[in-house]
Design goal:
Layout lengths: L3 H32 L3 H7 L11 H7 L2 H33 L7 H13 L4 H11 L7 H8 L3 H14 L2 H9 L4 H9 L4 H17 L2 H6 L2 H4 L5 H18 L11 H33 L5
Helix pairs in contact: 1-15, 3-15, 4-7, 4-8, 4-11, 4-14, 5-8, 11-15, 14-15
């Protein structure tokens, strides 16, 4: 039986955490409300949870490019799925090798991986290598390959999980039974590593979904515009709104454009899928981070 002090402390902790959760959700709720607010009202009265006038003008403006959104969403889903799957495979295989302390040269490989967390080749050399050597410009690989080679943190996270959370006796018993490294990895290690792999998959997927820099660097509008992801399309629309509103192009005045609320609607469209998926991975995310952390 719980004592009264324990019950009170637990109730207080739940209330406190509930308030923290509510505070974390309030900005997202405000974001959605502003996107449905009349633009003139938002500009004159500022942001409010209870606006004086509601409007669908921002979404009506964005629906003018509905065909672009459908194609961009499809490209984003494809890039996120392929990149996340490839990232999980590459990360887990390299992490498994690095977790073998007795493997010749493993200390050097561990150092090289950690070194990339502290230093990188810089934007210009990286761009030149990808475009002149690997020729990924204006191809779908320009949206996938660069992020695959920037996951040193996740490699070390998974390595620590393999090293500390899976008993060495399990490996030894499997080898005694005649299992090879590939069998151990695919049949024993991966099934026991769902929490950490789900964590890596979630972080990798979010990185791919929110990425717009690769599209900016490696895609040109005239040749690679058909490969634009949702983030590139939203960034382009946001830039067009700012340009039209500033220079009154084509006789379109600032008052006719939902400049403020359209930006909020763009943000809603960009983050909505992530907000819908995250709750299903939350338990794996927390468990994977804790179990994959460095243990003293």
């Amino acid at each position: 039986m719980k004592s009264k002090d324990q019950t009170r402390w637990q109730a207080g902790a739940h209330i406190f955490l509930g308030l923290c959760s509510a505070l974390a959700l309030l900005p997202f709720i405000l974001l959605v409300i502003i996107s449905f607010t009349d633009d003139k009202t938002a500009i004159e009265n500022g942001y409010a949870y209870f606006p004086a006038k509601w409007s669908l003008g921002a979404y009506e403006y964005l629906l003018q490019s509905a065909d672009k959104f459908v194609r961009a969403y499809g490209m984003t889903i494809l890039v996120t799925a392929v990149g996340t799957a490839a990232g999980i495979i590459m990360t887990s295989m390299l992490a498994y090798m690095l977790s073998k302390r007795n493997l010749p040269g493993v200390k050097v490989l561990n150092f090289l991986v950690v070194f990339t967390m502290l230093f990188n080749g810089g934007l210009v050399p990286t761009y030149m290598i990808y475009t002149t050597v690997f020729h990924i410009k204006n191809t779908i690989w320009g949206l996938i390959v660069p992020n695959l080679l920037m996951s040193a943190f996740m490699i070390m996270l998974v390595r620590n999980y393999f090293e500390h959370s899976i008993p060495e006796e399990l490996y030894e018993s499997a080898r005694i039974d005649g299992a090879g490294e590939f069998y151990i990895f695919f049949k024993i290690v991966l099934p026991l590593s769902v929490p950490i792999l789900a964590t890596v998959g979630l972080m990798t997927g979010i990185a791919y979904w929110n990425d717009w820099q690769n599209g900016l660097y490696y895609l040109t509008k005239d040749q690679g515009g058909h490969l634009y992801t949702i983030q590139n399309i939203l960034n382009e629309i946001n830039t067009n709104i700012s340009f039209l509103a500033s220079y009154n192009v084509g006789g379109v005045s600032t008052a006719e454009l939902p400049t403020t609320t359209a930006r909020m609607a763009i943000a809603v469209i960009g983050i909505l899928p992530i907000l819908m998926i995250y709750p299903f991975f939350q338990k794996y995310f927390a468990k994977g981070l804790v179990m994959g952390a460095v243990k003293g």
